[in-house]
Amino acid sequence: MKRPITELINARYSCRTYRAEPIAPEEQRELTEFLTMHTVGPFGSQARFALVAASPGDRQALKRLGTYGFIKGATGFLVGAVRRAPRDLEDYGHLLEHAILFATGLGLGTCWLGGTFTKSSFAARMGGLERDEIMPAVVSIGYIGDDGTQRIREREAGSRRLPASSLFFAERFGEPLDIGSAGGYATVLEGVRMAPSATNKQPWRIVRRNGDWHFYLQRTKGYGKGSAIFSVLRLADLQRVDLGIAMCHFELVAREMGLAGEWVLDKPDIGTLGPAVEYTATWRVAPPTSSATR
Ligand SMILES: Cc1cc2nc3c(=O)[nH]c(=O)nc-3n(C[C@H](O)[C@H](O)[C@H](O)COP(=O)(O)O)c2cc1C
User: Fold this and answer.
1) Which one of 16, 75, 99, 173 has the fewest beta carbons within 10 angstroms of its own beta carbon?
2) Which residue among 111, 193, 242 has the greatest number of ligand 1 atoms within 8 angstroms of its CB, and so is best to mutate?
């Protein structure tokens, strides 16, 4: 990463207007190298990614969904595919968000695109999909074209997110975590709060229990799995991708702050979760390393 991760998280926003200038060869090389080095998600799913140049037909391939904005002038796309596996979408979100933050460090603007897009047209640019692969979302990329908007967005970013008390809990759901007592994890959680999510639904919920951080998906009613539009359009379950993105932010900030831990699947018994809540994973905090003996 080119800059501290917390800085990159604050600098990133969904850039929908780009300058016409193509991405410089050196930046393309660095990005491609990053993409080829990060292909296995925290749950072990295998993915592959490519940086491809935008083509004239892309505007048609990116159809409009609901209130989603148009992407203007993207000079490239990050495209990817992941092998089907139990937590493939979370892994995909984690890996691609890591690449997005790397690209942010190169001064590039990005936007996740998971609405309706013609998968075949993007898949063709990476040699097509294997039978067991899916392409849940792509990312537009290029030099930021709307500087004024960027500054406003950076300022507004915090206010476009749910308060920490609605997202982070202690021991059980609905019991807000006292952020003041979270130590370095206050910064880690703020990194999660600033994460992008499909239609900004912010479906991540985290419960701290016995020092560990349990991640849950609080599904938005009428959105994603189970909703009519989801099955008609055969959209990927983007809220699971959102969880992978949140995990990526959590892990990268924690690691940068020296807060060691690892992802495990160990669903705790924390009582009632609510009707649309699903367990995703746990960040198990590593025990402190014993200090050297004199
Ligand atoms: C999985 C995923 C899919 C998204 N799909 C689209 C999309 O199709 N079109 C779009 O304009 N924005 C899309 N977004 C961007 C979100 O709308 C954006 O992240 C959210 O509103 C928060 O704003 P910010 O990224 O500027 O912080 C997507 C984001 C995520 C994480």
Assistant:
1) 173
2) 111
